[in-house]
Amino acid sequence: MLAEVAVEGKRPSVLGPSTGDAGPCAVVSWSAVKKVRLFTLEGNADGEAALAFLQQRGAAVDVRDVGRDPAASLELFSRLGRLGVPAIAIDDRVFVGFGINRGQIEALLRE
Fold this sequence. Notes:
This protein has one domain: Glutaredoxin (3-Layer(aba) Sandwich). It is built from three helices and seven strands, in the order ββββαβαββα. The chain has helices at residues 45-56, 70-80, 102-110, and strands at 3-6, 13-17, 24-27, 33-40, 62-65, 87-90, 93-96.
């Protein structure tokens, strides 16, 4: 089962300068509940960047290591017809590669 991401609000909001801070403090909140699964390999830098990105946005991510988990490899292959990491599955959409898809992933998390 995919992990659910519960986040509040619809649009990010930026607050004014916070006490003790030189700059503004950004508060990001979203209202959607998304199912997020990250398929990666141990030590994959792009996968680690994707995980950090998702966690910074409040996502509870189900991380699957396709190198160690044959079921994860089979699931990814059945969804894509090939293996490619990192692959980020959000609801029924799957993105292969993080950097090139970062904008689309963020937009989908905001929906």
